[in-house]
Amino acid sequence: MSFSSFLREKQYLENVSPNTLRWYKHALKWLPNESPDERALKDMVIRMREAGLKATGCNAAIRAINSYLRWSGSPHKVQQLREPHTVMPTFTLEQVKLLLAFKPTTDFEKRLHLLVMILFDTGCRISEALEIRIPDIDLDNLLITLHGKGRKDRKVPFSFELRKVLFKYMERKQSLLFVTANGTRWGRMGALRAVKIHCKHLGFEPPARTLHAMRHTFAGHYIRKTGSLLHLQKVLGHSSLEMSRRYANLMTEDLQAMHPQASLLA
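RE: above sequence
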């Protein structure tokens, strides 16, 4: 059994995406050899922590390594680390209103404003948004086909408000929805930089993990309005409800609003 055979099977038999393949390759570099024993696996995790990896980073690598261990027939399995439960960063309602109320004038501003609207309206990942093509958009039925992780496509609904903006914007597009002035694909870093600068121009500091914070903001608002974790899972494209639960953490103000109704002293 070898790393190369494992990667070839993932690529050609399971048809994993290039990003997933890179994830496996990166994770397998932590293994000291192709047949590690229990002691070597424990030392590997220690090396990860000594290298500065957080629990979430270690667990991401551990999931890939355990996949390899199962494939190779190893009797060993690496125990995942306990991750701290932190409140995920989100935009405030006031910040969302500022972003959505912006009136773009230039082509660049129109592209930026549309990206912000899509992220807030669908909760999609930034990678999924930047991959949207014109044929993926069904204006009649208000659906967008997103190309998610692991080559898994899903259809998500969007609002009438977004359809108005999409209809005007799509008139000049033929393939990818988001392209630069040079006609090239808009990259993640360029989009992130543009959104951060835009937030500062509107008078506020964007939250940490800015683009992903839009996804968190969508999830929190969705669960408050619908209460359906199952629907949220389908919209976000999660493979398990557990991941969706992490996105659906209620904010402190939500708890404050509910407490007068639940308090025994009220």
